[in-house]
Amino acid sequence: MSLPATMKIVGVVPGVVLICLGTVGKVLAQASIIINNIGGLIVFLIIIEDVLSGSTSSGVHHAGILEGWFGEHWWTSRAVVVLVLTAVVLVPFLCFKRIDSLRFTSAISFALAVVCLAVVIGITIYKFIMGSIEAPKYFPTITNLSSFWELFTAVPVVIFAYLCHYNVHPIANELADSPSMPTVVKTSVALCAIVYVMTGLFGFFLFGDSTLSDLLSNFDTDLGIPYNSLFNDIVRISYAGHIMLVFPIIFFPLRLNVDGLLFPSAAPLSSDNLRFGLVTVGLIAIILLGAIFIPSIWVAFEFTGATVGALLAFIFPACITLKDPHGIATKKDKILSVFMIIVAVFSTVAAIYSDAYSLLTA
User: Fold this and answer.
1) Element (H, E) at 232
2) What range defines the domain where residue 50 resides?
3) What is the pTM assigned to this prediction?
4) How many domains is the chain partitioned into structurally?
5) Backbone angles phi, psi at 270, to 5 degrees
């Protein structure tokens, strides 16, 4: 009967791993969540930098919103913009000690993502009717061994996108009606899957082979539609706002797991203001440094998703099923678990090899 209390302290993912795989497994799970969430939050800040201050890809500069409105100044630079936004917009949200306090910002963030998606779909349909969209590439082009291995670099990005279960227990712990949690999870995953798939499809249909690693950087050119600048800004601003409001939701479990790893025997983090402040400030500093010095979201996506992402999404759940301390897993479950581990290891090694090769030969 003490197992629920274990999860209350360490969270659902580390809790399950601790019960099934022991202390080493728990520490590894906590470390994986920390690395995954730090990588994700760095990606969020890089996207905000791309949107507001612009980005450079393959020698081509894509102007940001602030550059387009006010021109290029020191105060529109990536580092200054992300520092100011973090201090003014993000830090107040990061001071909340309950994830329930972020319920309204979460709803607004989803609404902003839907606005962005609706505009992208509308632009794509308009250009399709006008006959100005080329037929998309329905299957990958494999010309040599290098292009084959490059296919696996997309796997970590997809894994990264669907890693959200580290927030399940904090949310369930604060729900007044705990039995409603399965409905909450199913609804959330379904809505996210729809938005992800539609964004990927229509974004690629719209830009084809010109699609950049950060899709929002594509919205700085003439799309050949009426009110082009207005729609470009709506897409970029709505998604940047979405990311700003999602940031504290991802930060919440990150802070809990860092505290649990560093101070496993201490009182709850919410009851110690000094420790809460120090952990928060330290994590913000690390994330800011990463966002300023990592040049592309693709780099952060690939290495984070290919390492800890594969552990959290595939390997840990499969290992728990294989160990099966309560004898509830079927033979089919165990076969699928072995398959999950093989696929995760193979795709991870392939993705890391491809990433490292690309960086070394660039």
Assistant:
1) helix 228-262
2) 3-361
3) 0.76
4) 1
5) -65, -15
